[in-house]
Amino acid sequence: MSFLAIDLGGTQFKSALISEDFQLEQSFPARPSARDLEDCQKLLQVMIEPHLETIEGIAISCPGTIDPVTGTVYNGGMLHYLDSFSFKDFLEQSYQKPVAVLNDGKAAVLAELASGNLKGVTNGLAMIVGTGLGGGIIINGQLYQGSHFQAGELTFALPQDRMSPLSAADLAGGALSAVNFIARCAKALGLSDEQDGRAVFEAIKSKDERVYPSFQHYCRHFALQINNLQSILDVERVVIGGGISAQTILIDEVNRQLDQLETEEAWVFKVVKRPQVMACFYHNSANLIGAAYYLGQSLAKD
């Protein structure tokens, strides 16, 4: 039997069958994100019902603060309509299958801990770039949820150089949003499709002056965030996830910016030990695999 994992993002809903040893068995075409809760429920039904005879349970990854006991989402991040909605109640009543719900950043870090680039790491951090900036933290080999289940909500880190009132674009999730970055670059390149990441990165790789300085600035901001988080968490390794993480040039440039920071601020790095920085092993499927892993862990405890 497999698990059906569903990842609800700000722009797309993705789903896949995950094996009991947490390998991606089959992925399905992504669907545009839902407009409201009713639309979301209908989409879930379409994504789940064809697989009911062959799955052991349903694993949900989504933005927001999530109570893991009740499966209730609070705030919902970019999907505001999920606030106070319990996936666990809705899906278990509808399908009589076990359901687990986990924040998307926490799902990603669990995937990496289970069989990815954080396997065997005692203390680690995942930074997931998409519509915003998700995060997941591993402390002493275990997922750290926090006192209010909101550890790793990196999107909401406030800037230190701007006065209130702040907009969403001012937060860390706005500054490091892959969606926003691609859109800015696409506009600078005159592309008709503002989500054409492939074309944007082709221009970046050729060091097109219309976008390359913006790319360097984006990676510099990434490096600063990593250093600031490291000063608090002291992890061994940071993994970067989301679709953009498949671009090797991104990881290379973030590390180059860390090199530059280490040269410029050597006294800081004498105290704050630099972590390893690499891409998530699972890139864009980390949330799906991690949600299934979390469900598997929950079933093993029952």
Describe the structure.
With 302 residues, the protein is α/β, with parallel strands linked by helices. The chain has 10 helices and 13 strands. The chain has helices spanning 37-48, 87-95, 104-115, 172-175, 178-189, 197-205, 212-233, 248-264, 266-269, 286-301, and strands at residues 2-8, 12-18, 24-32, 55-62, 65-67, 72-74, 85-86, 99-103, 124-129, 133-139, 142-143, 237-241, 276-279. The strands form 3 sheets. The chain has a 5-stranded mixed sheet, sandwiched between helices. Strand 10 (133-139) and strand 11 form a beta hairpin. Helix 3 crosses helix 10 (286-301) and helix 7 crosses helix 8. The longest helix is centred in the C-terminal third of the chain and has 22 residues, at 212-233. The protein is globular and about 55 Å long.
